């Protein structure tokens, strides 16, 4: 692969990985009205997909091509 493509894949992979971890760690939505607490349970399926895509992009950027 071209060196430019590898660099772009590495940058995109790191950004996707950081974004996926950030969306997984952010707290779920919570609303408090008096004694009533409404809590939305967080679904991390999209975070896992984004983290997986980031890891794939990083691995592809680190693979050594034909010389």
Describe this structure as you would to a colleague.
Keywords: Membrane, Transmembrane, Transmembrane helix. The chain crosses the membrane at residues 7-25, 45-63. This protein has helices at residues 3-25, 45-62, and strands at residues 30-33, 36-39. It has 67 residues and is mainly alpha-helical. The chain has one domain (3-62). The relative contact order is 0.26. The mean pLDDT is 85.
Task: Provide a concise account of the structure shown.
The protein has 67 residues and is mainly α. The protein is 61% helix and 12% strand. It has one domain.
Write the layout of secondary structure elements.
Layout: H1 3-25, E1 30-33, E2 36-39, H2 45-62
Antiparallel strand pairs: 1-2
Helix pairs in contact: 1-2
């Amino acid at each position: 692969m071209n060196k430019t493509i590898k660099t772009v894949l590495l940058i995109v992979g790191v950004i996707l990985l950081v974004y996926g971890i950030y969306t997984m760690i952010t707290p779920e939505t919570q609303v408090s009205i008096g004694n009533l607490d409404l809590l939305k349970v967080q679904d991390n399926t999209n975070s896992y997909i984004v983290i997986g895509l980031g890891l794939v992009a990083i691995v592809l950027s680190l693979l050594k091509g034909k010389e």
